[in-house]
Amino acid sequence: MKLGLGLVLAVLALAPFPALAAAPAAGPTDRADCKEHPLFTRMPGYFIYRCNEKQFDAVKFNVGDSKKPKVESVEGRYVQIIYNFDKSKGSAPSGLQVVRNYQNAIKQVGGVVLWETNRETTLKLAKKDLEFWSLVSEYGTAVTITVVERQAMKQDIVANAEAWANDLKANGHAAVYGIYFDTGSATVKPESEPALQEIAKLVGADAALKIWVVGHTDSVGGLESNLKLSQARAEAVRAALTTRHGIAAGRLSAQGVGPLSPVASNATDEGKAKNRRVELVAQ
Length: 283
Hints:
By secondary structure, this protein is an alpha+beta fold. Helix content is about 25%, strand content about 30%.
């Protein structure tokens, strides 16, 4: 069946895809500050009415049964494009026609359909370490495409030694979110260095201070594996502080508690992210 919609993936040139129809040239009525998303071209007869782009945002996507869908919150780079139909081109396509075009296009490059109605659909495309979630909606003569490239937020703000010292004094513990690991790994990533430096500064400023370095996980996976992972991560942080930052080994103790001390619900991605942390606990 010949599709009315092409799909291109310039952002995923690292993997081969089937050749699809090229995007039509932007019409004269396209909004000047908007452009096509590299994941999708448009349905014939449509022009770009409005667009919005954010470095990082969260979108709730419907997945599963069309009548009782579940909701998946996806965070990452956000792009939304709203198309409107040029009525001089004739009759606008139906919502089902729009939905089927986008569904067929995503399937051609290995994507999947996660949810649908006659006017909306959730699509997902995963290639290597990239994951794209898309919501396509048709209402009247407008088609809205929302795409989120799933990724962890770049942490621009890291708490400092002074803030952690205040937390230790007031609460006996301080949460550290600037220490990073790959999924399932206990290897401290290089981008953790600013947080490690601040921990070393904290300990160095108080000769009497001894702390437990406590590893926490979310609830994904089994309890035993999470307990082992959190212990290994706590030990890795302790090792980094003693070997690279000169903290005496006797002032630091490592402990892993896995998912047993959450600070948020593990029912959401946002909650899981808050639960994956390292804490400093005063001895």
